[in-house]
């Protein structure tokens, strides 16, 4: 007996992770305004879900968003998920007749690359919905056009991002790391944080390089060694723009975190815990400290964007 031919799905949902930068080494500004980076991305188990639904004959792409931070997400053409779907349609000479829904759990403008995650998720969801089977290399190239951070959530796990962060080399991770993420009221704009970095460094930062100790700590799954090597060159700039983050970092280390740092351009603060139980205790203490909006636990590494069946 032969089975019926598969019919294309009318709806596809993709789950896609947030990131923390366990090392973010930033060089001087380039002529194009970007900065060369040694950006060690680690995917963490906080996820957005992107659902793409067939909308044949629709005048234009439709976009909705749900979740506690939904009101902060732009629903116009500037939304990175919408831009991703439009870009993939153009790549295949298709009309972007699709309805996208973002179920948002990643903090918005928090330095956890939620918008980038949505773009990567939308690309994968539309590729599956339209049956376009875009080769991985082409998907990654489209991601890199959309933003420096967009290729990573497609891949997940851990990776070194070079250039402006878009050129990825996967990294081995030898264990599970437990984190607490303290979100803040109000975001920080990434370009403003890079500008403040340039002001603080006088535009003369050294060329960035990955730390061999940090890569070894990741590969060994050694939480103590990782805690000793976490580094974010954008942290002084984020603290300069938002001095109250110092209280958040101190509250987490006071509650037993092995290390604390600003996640990427901030203002979310990341705390590395010895294990899952310690992470729960640190999250409770942070929530009670009055120094953050929410405190969430998450484990890493997390997988990259994946279709949920
Ligand atoms: C800082 C990081 C760390 O992973 O992320 P967040 O913490 O904001 O999530 C990234 O570098 C953010 O990447 P992403 O948000 O994709 O940046 P893009 O859209 O490519 O660029 C936005 C703006 O950020 C600045 N930018 C970004 C990347 C880079 N290597 N150098 C830069 O100077 C530029 O001002 C650029 O115009
Ligand atoms: N799908 C999206 N989700 C969240 N923000 C988005 C999205 N698309 C565009 N944006 C815009 O990108 C800005 C940065 O958002 P986000 O990616 O969450 O933070 P960060 O760059 O700090 O990691 C937001 O303030 C918002 O205006």
Automatic annotation (TrEMBL):
One of its GO terms (biological process) is terpenoid biosynthetic process. It holds the Pfam family GHMP_kinases_C. Residues 79-157 form the GHMP kinase N-terminal domain. ATP binds at residues 107-117. The keyword Repressor does not apply. It catalyses: 4-CDP-2-C-methyl-D-erythritol + ATP = 4-CDP-2-C-methyl-D-erythritol 2-phosphate + ADP + H(+). The active site is at residues 19, 149. Its EC number is 2.7.1.148. Belongs to the GHMP kinase family. IspE subfamily. This is 4-diphosphocytidyl-2-C-methyl-D-erythritol kinase. The lineage of its organism: Bacteria, Bacillati, Actinomycetota, Actinomycetes, Kitasatosporales. The gene is ispE.
